[in-house]
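INFO batch 0412 | record 1 of 1 | parsing
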Amino acid sequence: EDGKVNALYDLEGNLLSFHTTSAPSFADRRTKPTFSEKAALAKAPLVFAELAGVPALDVHDAKLIFAHVDDQEVRRWTLAWQIDVQNTEAATPVGKLITLDAHTGDFLKSAESVHFFDVNGTISAMASPGTSADHAGNPPVATPVPYVQVNSSAGTTFTDANGFFNYPGVNTPLNITVAFNGTYANCNHDQGADYSVTFNNVQPNQSNSLMMNATPTEYVTAEANAYISIAELRDWITTRIPTDTTPNFQGPANCNIDSSCNAFFNGNSTNYYNRAGSCNNTAFSAVVAHEVGHWLNVLYGTGNGGDGIGEGNADVFALYLYDDPVMGRFFFTSGGAVRNGNNTRQYCGDGNGGCYGQVHTDGEVWMATAWNVRENLNASMGNAAGDLHADLLFLGWMNSFNQTTIDSIMEIQWLTLDDNDGNINNGTPNYQDIDDGFTEQGFPGFDLPFITFANEDLIDNTSDESGPYTGAVDMVASFNPPVASGTLHYRVNNGAWQEVPMANTSGNTWAGNIPGIASPATVLYYFEGEDNTGGSNTFPESGQAGAFTFYVGTYTEFLINDFEGATNEGWVSGAPGDNATTGLWERGDPIGTASQPEDDHTGNGVNCWFTGQGTAGGSIGQNDVDGGTTTLLSPIFDATGAMNPEISYWRWFDNNGNGQVDDTLEIDISNDGGNSWVNVETIGPNGFGTDGGWLQHSFDITNFVTPTSNMRMRFVTMDNSPGSIVEAAIDDVQGFSLDPSSTNLGTAYCTPAVANSTGFPGFLSAFGSPDASNNEVTLTATLLPLNEFGYFLNGTAQDSVSPPGSAGVLCLGGALGRYNDISEIFNTGAFGQGELVLDLTDTPTPTGPTTILAGQTWNFQCWYRDTNAATSNFTDAVSVTFN
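INFO prediction complete | emitting tokens
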């Protein structure tokens, strides 16, 4: 009974599932009944009478089957007799298919065998086809009316997506009344009674085709157009994202307003004008989708902002739904449309989306961008697949992001939705189509990095002046592997930027060595990688502007706040004179509104200070600084006696590109507890550092005030002008002194040396104690060619000689000694460096070993091979006077 097999395959012929309703283990089943057919025919009428409450009048032949029976949620199969028993003379005819066990005669189950007629059919209306208005060249055609309410004496039902309705079990004619009122729309005629029609004597047991407005008129066609278009938009969304319930609401649509050339959404209805002046009736497909699109903008959270995003987005709903770039064909009686997605309106820059001065014109930038992406996808994937992917990107974007302004970040959002590996920096499956769609309309595009960086091993603060200081990072070439070279850029105490080569130490890891540096020193540095075609990127991305920092010297902190503790640690929001109405400083975990950070500066911590918390993904300007100033005050700290006292901090400032002269973030310092202030830095209103992103800054206190025990800092954010968005954040404030380490020895001369094959001159440093009796001196040579041999030399005098066969200059004179025993010769290795710990009691000279004594001056230098240049070379030299 009902034995079926279902095999499901994918389009490549792979078996996905196999399902059967047949009986398992059939071979051992008994197929000969022990309860006879005669006995079954005698028992079946008795069972029928008990079940139906009326006697059996017709008993049909018995059929021997294997019946399936649900027994306590487990299906079993058993040999059974099946007999159809009926009474068709009862007030309501009844029939039952009685199933009896063929071995025991037990009643197993029954099913209805008499079925009644239904009243059903399809409801259609005369509506304008395609994307053109109702005009003589586009007459209405019969169109199914979906989800419309159907009323009769048998109750209320609704048509399905194809206009089909059904009254089950009704076998008499019905009078059916229908208006343009249903699950997702209620259309009204603004100049009179709403259209309604009653169909009389709709017959059962046949397919009834019911036409609502068989003789169409402008006003009724407008109602039909609005109703059907609203349902089409709803179905388009839910067929692509079945879990999206956002469009499942009933939206009133007011048609035939006695005016001309307009349609609008007012927050609780959409509204359409009748034919008048130079325009056709505005209730038709694309215009309806546009106006309902405004409603959906609100429901999805994108809104209808003044820079044109609402108008542009509403257009995209219409363009994507009807797969037509022309918005509102025959909106005008002359045949003209409203807008066209194939336009060249160019993007004016972040924070300047409303640059054309009219929201519909401003919105053309976004409607065209979205249409570009759709066309590009069609060209790459084919029309059907391209349309579907574009639809899913757009609707996924509406569900995932609350982007309330036209901004370049929109491309990143679309690429994120298109991505398949969690890293848009290595491209997405349809990166080129999406990026081209945005750049065609003047957006800056999203440049894929040639090199991606990860797992950075940064340089710690140190008192060691000998170096080298090793920084490492993983580098991967995104498109043109492998990574061909790496460079570590650095600068000391705001001097000129210098660079050292990096070496591939293992796998994707590249490391570079900054040579020893005399303390005290503040060192900034960043990494650069290059692929095998010359494409390069830096890390951090902003290079010099976002460089990492480490300090050489004795580092002593007098102020340290990372804001991760349970309290504010003495920091205070607010000061006399503050008058901002919103966006006051607060400490917490930022959640990332449109112009605020979503993490503290490290991304590893939680808290920082920021100006006002909005909602996650919220609109730009949500709870930003408005109406004046808001101040963040530090606790009082003691910097008395600190040598080279510095303060560093990480800051975020965003002014959305529309900053006025007094929209700023000011950083001030006080040495009298806050009675008087000196400005350290002012960011804004425009320019570098005013468009978000964490940036570090540090300053020497002594450049502004004399350090005392009564020091204080403040951060003041101002927004005194209308029309701009001001947001700020502060994290990881450190105050410290940096004293000399006193381990660097001697005075360098012959500097710089002659450059070697790396492009850099070799560099020599001496470290340790100048007290000869301590016997603590180390020589270090850096920036040498890789994997070469070298050794150190000494001299009792200074000179400048160019030896034959060497590219460099020998800077030693007098009696020369060579540290060239087998244990003293070094290989420069993967980092291009060599080191030797001297034994001052065993110093080589031409006449044999000697001891260096107090009062003597010795000079040191390093000689090394340079195979790539087919020569040898020398570092610079160091002169040390011992005491």
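INFO post-check: The mean pLDDT is 92.
INFO record closed
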